[in-house]
Design brief:
Largest sheet: none
Shape: globular
Distance between the termini: 29 Å
Number of strands: 0
Radius of gyration: 16 Å
Number of helices: 8
Strand content: under 5%
Helix content: 55-70%
Number of domains: 1
Length: 211
């Protein structure tokens, strides 16, 4: 029988000990692949994200990356996507994380919070251009709040400690959205700004959860 592994006191678990620059590189690659609908690229990046960001063994990494890819594919169409299907895949993903690390407590709740920030982001994308460059604007509160709640639940840390990580990740999404509006140019100056925001986000997340 397979049980959950609750991490004892001492060195941080692999869920809480990651390379923020490497994680930012991988998420950046995944986002570009997602918006260009280059699914093999998304899968390759997802393997790295699951391995580096969640510290799973290789079997669970490959299984988890496939679940994340399928969740994104079910979410991607607009309109006519499948939120329930995306949540089901992410619930199974977070169940793998719990088997490895003993957290989050309820994979179904983690999946709900995950897909909720996808919803908040999509609604912001289709609410219209705010008329100002993304790098100069504060990210929307709904998206920032949704990311903060997800981080707080997955890592069991107070929302106040995780808000800066959420703000920077939401800022990276705003920059990505601006890149899409401007035609997804591969040499766009927005791309390094997006990557830098992701590095800041994961550095802030590591500082909050590394215990």
């Amino acid at each position: 029988m397979i049980g959950t592994v609750k991490v004892s006191a001492g060195a941080p678990s692999r869920l809480r000990s990651f390379d923020p620059v490497r994680l930012a590189d991988l998420e950046y690659q995944a986002w570009v692949g997602y918006y260009l609908r280059r699914w093999p690229r998304v899968l390759i990046a997802s393997v790295g994200l699951v391995r580096v960001g969640f510290g799973l063994g290789w079997y669970r990494t490959m299984r988890g990356a496939w679940l994340v890819l399928r969740a994104n594919q079910l979410w991607a169409p607009y309109p006519g996507n499948d939120p329930a299907g995306a949540r089901a895949r992410m619930r199974r993903f977070y169940a793998l994380v719990k088997l490895a690390h003993g957290e989050p407590d309820d994979p179904a709740r983690a999946a709900e919070l995950e897909v909720d920030w996808w919803r908040a982001h999509r609604e912001g994308q289709h609410a219209g251009d705010r008329g100002e460059p993304a790098g100069d604007a504060e990210p929307g509160e709904e998206l920032t709040g949704a990311l903060t709640r997800l981080y707080s639940y997955v890592y069991g840390e107070p929302e106040s400690a995780l808000r800066q990580a959420a703000v920077e990740r939401a800022r990276a999404m705003d920059l990505s959205d601006q890149w899409i509006r401007e035609g997804c140019q591969p040499d766009s100056g927005l791309l390094p700004l997006e990557h830098a925001a992701l590095v800041r986000s994961y550095a802030a997340l590591l500082a909050a959860v590394h215990r």
